[in-house]
Structure formats: structure tokens, C-alpha cells
Amino acid sequence: MQFEVFTLLPEVFPSYLETSIIKRARERDLINVRVHNIRDYTHDKHHTTDDTPYGGGGGMVMKPDPVFEAIETILELNTEPTPPRSDSKIPIILLTPQGRVFNQSIAQELSQHPRIFLICGRYEGIDERIREHLVTDEISIGDYVLTGGELPALILIDAIARLLPDVLGDPTGAQDDSHATGLLEYPHYTRPPEFRGWKTPDILLTGDHAKIDKWRREQSLLRTFNKRPDMLEKAELTKKDLKFIEGIKAEVESQKSKAE
Ligand code: ADE
């Protein structure tokens, strides 16, 4: 999988990309991340990448010409010359708080592409013609505003990379993730069995895998019910799951009536 990142702050990327799982994925050629400096695609003496907004008002706006030139140059380097627009299959994604909100299913969707372009916005905004005539998708990492799209781009790379074959040491590693199953993940414990008087649940020490699987499923349901009940509405639930949830609801009701 090839990530092409376009930014005015290329120095932000190496430390994260040279660490841990992402570093190993790059070394094993499972992913390749190229970071392109948009400033390298300017032609004036001062390498100008921003300008004042037409119509007045505060702040600066990212100029369209260096961004178009950067994307078009990199597109043409590796592929037959396809116009950079929605008819091109390569996603050209603008990171912006105005985009669709990133989640696990968007990560899954993007992990199917062999190549992805990520444009990191800076300044107060970007010239609208970049949005209208260059990008094919806009993604936000949440309803808050950052100073730029660099951290969001790293978040996308991380979430997508770990879904690719062989990136995680454990081949089933991504299957049970919170969100991958539509539920939050069950609690984990490791040695020691008792820490400061807090015990590991007995069932995890029994070696009875059928019982452990049942306990984990129920814990996932319970956690999701308590922390993210909205997720239960979309999750794929079995009859057994629904019965378990009915049990939790009945328990909650009886606690409430006892308190009154
Ligand atoms: N740029 C600034 N804020 C952002 C956000 N929340 N998501 C993606 N890109 C951004």
C-alpha cells in the first residue's frame, strides 16, 4: 500500500513513521509512505504557498497552484496519465474538519486501495478550487479543529496500515478490535494473577476456551451497553446476545427501583 502525503510540514512525519509497527511495516515493504513538501512546487522567489482571502477577512488561504502541481506531478510519476478527479480510482483525500468523520469502516474501505493521496490543510483554509476540482474525498478525525491535517493524516495511515495483511504480528490481531466487531473489546489481563489485591477473573485461568469465549462476548456486550449504547443499534447480534442484553436491562431496572 502506497501513501502519498502532501504537506507544508514534512518534518512532522518521520518520528512516528520510524517507530514500532509502522516502522516494521515499512521495512517489510507492506506499506510505503512518501511525504511531499507542497512548498517544493512553488516557483516564486519566496516559495509562497498562501495568500490573503478574496473578499477580505482575517487569516491566510492555501494557494491552489502548488497543491495542484504537487498532486499532478506525483500522479503522473507512477500511473498512466489519468485526470485527477473522481474518475480516477486513487482516493485524493483532503484532511479537514468539514469531511466525513473517520471510523473503522472507512479505514476498512480505504485499506482496499493500493494507493492513497492525503492532503494536509494548513492556515485558515484552502482555496475552494482544490476541494472542488482536485480532491475526491474529505475526511475529518472528529468534531474539533486542529492547526492542520498532519496528525489526522498519520491517524489514517496508522488505522489503515494495521488492517493490511501481515502488518500486525498476530494475524487475527485486528479482528477482535473495539469497533471492528461493531462492539467494544472485552477486558484483558496478564500476569500477575493478583495485583495489589485486584484479581484476574477466575474464568480466564480455567483454560476452558468455550467458557472464556462466552465470557468475553458478554463482557463486550456489557461494555458497549454501558459506554457506547449507540453502537448496539448497528451491531450484528445473535439471539443469545439479545437475550443477554435483555438481562442487563432487567438488572438496571431492578437496581433503579431499589434505589427509589
Ligand atoms: N484539520 C484540522 N482539524 C481537522 C480535523 N478535525 N480532522 C481532519 N483534519 C483537520
Q: In CATH, what is the class of the largest domain?
A: Alpha Beta
Give the strand line-up of the largest sheet: 2-1-6-5-8
Pairing-aware structural class of the strands and helices? Answer: alpha/beta
* The CATH fourth-level homologous superfamily of the largest domain: SPOUT methyltransferase, trefoil knot domain
Largest sheet: 5 strands, parallel
Q: Which architecture of the largest domain does the CATH hierarchy give at level 2?
A: 3-Layer(aba) Sandwich
The overall strand count is 10
- Provide the helix percentage: 25-40%
Question: Could you tell me the mean pLDDT?
Answer: 94
Count of folded domains: 2
- Spans where pLDDT lies below 50 across 5 or more residues: none
End-to-end separation in angstroms reads 58 Å
Q: Beta-strand percentage? A: 15-25%
Enter the CATH topology name of the largest domain: Alpha/beta knot
SS field, number of helical segments:
9
